[in-house]
Amino acid sequence: MDGYQRRTEKKKENIRNAAFELFKVYGVEKVSIAEIAKKANVSPVTIYNYFGNKDELFKEVLSEYMNNELDQYMELLHSDLPFPKKLEKMVFNKTEAAKTLSSDFLKGITDPSLQEVIEDFANNKAIPLMMEMIEQGKAEGYVNPYLSTNAILIYIHTFSEMTQRPELFSNTHMNELLDLSNLFFYGLLGQPVKDS
């Protein structure tokens, strides 16, 4: 990669970072290209040249966000921590991540135009990682080994679909959403495992 390409990639990264910072606080609808350009220290034309429009920029930002989250979970899954601790950290990380995202941001991801991006990510990345976690839990004796893979997939799909309902993303329901996250994980275990 030559100097020009490095500068271009750096500009794109700055734009994505600026957009994410604004989107996560104000939501996609309330943020303009001009505001993103100002925060990224580029011209609005540069954003249009690189990303086409705000919706395409949001798709890239959302994809990058989901991939970064997945990388953290993958690192955790492959760590030497005991399985119950991994689950606790996954729930804690999900809780902390959710606290940084406004309800306006979360409502934005329910837009039908993004469903293909989200479904592709779920089917090709998130669900395989989840299945790896379940298999690890079964192998270590923490997840019921008699649960079929299909039943677990239905359980994951049901949970995922429910958490995409816009009414769950208002500030008044965030605690319930986080409780569902705990229920999702600890429902597999039966109850949280306590350290002795």
Folded structure, characterized:
Keywords: DNA-binding, Repressor. This is HTH tetR-type domain-containing protein. It holds the Pfam family TetR_N. With 196 residues, this protein is mainly α. Helix content is 73%, strand content 0%. The chain is built from nine helices and no strands. The protein has helices at residues 3-26, 33-40, 44-51, 54-77, 83-100, 103-108, 115-139, 149-163, 174-189. Helix 1 (3-26) crosses helix 4, helix 5 packs antiparallel against helix 9 (174-189) and helix 7 (115-139) packs across helix 8 (149-163). The chain is elongated and about 55 Å long. 16% of the residues are buried. The model has no long low-confidence stretch (mean pLDDT 81).
Question: What topology does this entry show?
Answer:
Elements: H1 3-26, H2 33-40, H3 44-51, H4 54-77, H5 83-100, H6 103-108, H7 115-139, H8 149-163, H9 174-189
Which short descriptors sum up this protein?
196 residues, DNA binding, HTH_TetR, repressor, Arc Repressor Mutant, subunit A, elongated, 73% helix, Homeodomain-like_sf, mainly alpha, DNA-binding
Number of domain modules? 2
Tally of strands: 0
How many alpha or pi helices? 9
Largest sheet: none
- Helicity level, as a percent range? over 70%
Note poorly predicted spans: none
Protein name: HTH tetR-type domain-containing protein
Organism: Heyndrickxia oleronia
Domain HTH tetR-type: 9-69
Keywords: DNA-binding, Repressor
What's a quick, concise take on this entry?
With 196 residues, the chain is mainly α.
